Amino acid sequence: MTWLITGGAGYIGAHVVRAMRAAGERVVVVDDLTSGVTERLPADVPLVRGSVLDRELVARALAEHAVTGVVHLAARKQVAESVAQPIRYYEENVHGLAVLLDAAVAADVRAFVFSSSAAVYGMPDVDLVTEATPCQPMNPYGETKLAGEWLVRAAGATHGLATACLRYFNVAGAADPELADTGVSNIIPMFFDRIASGRAPLVFGDDYPTPDGTCVRDYVHVADLADAHLAAARWLTGLTAPRDLTVNIGTGRGVSVREMAELVAEVTDHPGPIAEVAPRRPGDPARVVASAERIATELGWSARYDVREMVESAWLGWRHHQSTLR
Ligand code: WQD
After folding, report:
1. Which residues pair with 290 in a beta bridge?
2. pLDDT tens, 307-319?
3. Distance, CA 170 to ligand 1 centroid (Å)?
């Protein structure tokens, strides 16, 4: 099998490339490098620079590399940005997916892994979110991920594609410092950024209906996430008839923002104050924690790393990245 990995030069994509290569899979990457960086890729991984919106470029990459499977990660993924630019999000995340799927079907690709998100659930009012929990996305980003799943499943059913939709919960950490998330749009790098500038991390609200009043999330190590993609790819290629599998990728364990602040302070030797309470951020659910039962049953996958390892590896990556900026 040769896998086309879109967005393979990104934070998550580079981890997926590394895991699939380590398992002996052949890969080729399409990435427009708007957020990905080539240094994350092994030198011998073919990189086709461009967007999935460019059908000719995608068709050429699929043909030249005799691609038989696709892992689609390339997308815009910032919630606040999606509220400000909904048309761009639907264009890139949904239309881009449609162009890619059309080219994949024409190239007789047989397996398709789609990067979805816990954002499809919106504000689930359950202790553990299962794949049967109603999907009520709260923002254009989550909407594009749910619409993307609908499109992937419909294309799979009509054109005989075996498909897997992977609903990421909160991804963190780094398998190696040079693969770390260099964006500052999620809690851990946002906390590091505050500490690096001598300020206390901000806790967006401490009056939620949770044990310590702060929001609870299910953090999953990006190395575990990458392994889940490999497991999904192997599952798809082992099928005797096309099917869809939609699964949560999480640990089943919730961590509160305050707990995260305490852990970050400990790992970074931050003298404190550990956190400063700020107003709630609009649209934040109090609790989003995955049931990871289905992925364990169907793919034999479960998370290996805990949140301390996520913070420690993220901190090493943060310091590595800061050293490259000097
Ligand atoms: C986590 C918690 C914040 C920063 C989003 C997307 C989701 C996925 C992950 C792509 C929240 C709180 C944060 C800070 C804080 N992305 N927080 N102070 O919002 O759970 O999920 O990113 O798939 O789809 O929706 O992640 O890291 O932004 O926030 O208190 O400085 O930390 O309020 O409760 P989120 P996050």
Report:
1. 129
2. 999 999 999 999 9
3. 7
Q: Is 121 a catalytic residue?
A: no
Dist. CA 114 → ligand 1 center (Å): 21
Q: Kindly report the CATH number that applies to the domain delimited by 2-171+219-249.
A: 3.40.50.720
Ligand 1: residues with CB < 6 A are: 77, 79, 117-119, 168, 170, 186-187, 190, 201-204, 215, 217, 257, 281, 284
CA angle 283, 293, 117 (to 5 degrees): 30
pLDDT grade, residue 272 (50/70/90)? confident
36, two tokens: 């990905």
Task: Kindly give the distance from the C-alpha atom of residue 186 to the centroid of ligand 1, in angstroms, as a whole number.
Answer: 5
| Cis before 273 (ω within 30) | yes
Counting ligand 1 atoms within 8 A of each CB, the residue from 72, 115, 187 with the most, and so the one to mutate, is: 187
Residues 6+ apart with CB under 8 A from 18: 42, 175, 179, 226
Question: What is the pLDDT, as a whole number, of residue 56?
Answer: 98
Residue nearest to atom 24 of ligand 1 (CA): 119
pTM as predicted: 0.97
Domain boundaries, the chain: 2-171+219-249, 174-217+252-325
Q: Is pLDDT above 90 for 325?
A: no
Closest CA to 229 of 211, 245, 213: 245
Q: Which of 11, 121, 141, 168 is catalytic?
A: 141
Give the Cα separation of 177 and 181 in Å (integer).
Answer: 9
220, pLDDT greater than 90:
yes
User: Is residue 326 pLDDT above 90, yes or no?
Assistant: no
CATH topology of domain 174-217+252-325: UDP-galactose 4-epimerase; domain 1 (3.90.25)
